[in-house]
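F.,

This is the one I mentioned.
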């Protein structure tokens, strides 16, 4: 997550984190469906309106790093070094995200997500949104010279790589295998004159 600079922003970020941490603790202790928004707000010692000013829905409480995930993917495109190829930059970011989400501490959270139709549906819509944001960043880079279709396709592949790899017994090997396919697909659509492709 972006580090807030001012006192007010730091206080807001701390409140948001407190709400998310409280919600996750309650969900893991008692089950996602057994805990209501009002209980989360009361336990976090905030008003329900404050909770909703930080999180749009109950599902969003579980995916509190959603915005950070999206920004990291965009920065992998826009913040890469001059002449750095796109796919290796995206692969490094996905590898880091997969490492984070497959840590032992994350296992109970993913079990909760996998057991909840509401959370699975939310995650799917989140993945589609991330893919669109990533596709926009790829298409906006003039040095990549990709069509909107190619940008959207590669973006979907990258987002799916994250989801597929986290479910494998060896997530890092899965990322490597998937990204070999993504690289081949990217090279098939890349104009040879693109220096940063």
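My design for it:
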């Amino acid at each position: 997550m972006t580090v807030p600079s001012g006192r007010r922003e730091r206080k807001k970020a701390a409140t948001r984190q407190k709400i998310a941490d409280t919600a996750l603790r309650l969900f893991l202790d008692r089950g996602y469906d057994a805990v209501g928004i009002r209980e989360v707000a009361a336990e976090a010692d905030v008003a329900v309106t404050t909770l909703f000013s930080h999180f749009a829905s109950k599902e969003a409480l579980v995916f509190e790093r959603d915005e950070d995930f999206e920004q990291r993917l965009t920065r992998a495109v826009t913040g890469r070094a001059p002449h750095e190829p796109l796919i290796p930059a995206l692969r490094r970011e996905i590898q880091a995200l997969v490492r984070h989400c497959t840590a032992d501490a994350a296992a109970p959270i993913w079990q909760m997500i996998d057991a909840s139709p509401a959370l699975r549906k939310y995650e799917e819509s989140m993945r589609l949104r991330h893919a669109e944001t990533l596709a926009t960043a790829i298409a906006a880079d003039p040095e990549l010279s990709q069509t909107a279709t190619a940008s959207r396709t590669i973006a979907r592949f990258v987002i799916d790589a994250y989801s597929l790899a986290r479910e494998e017994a060896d997530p890092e090997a899965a990322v490597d295998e998937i990204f070999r396919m993504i690289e081949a697909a990217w090279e098939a659509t890349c104009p040879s004159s693109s220096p940063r492709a």
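The radius of gyration is 19 Å.

Talk soon.
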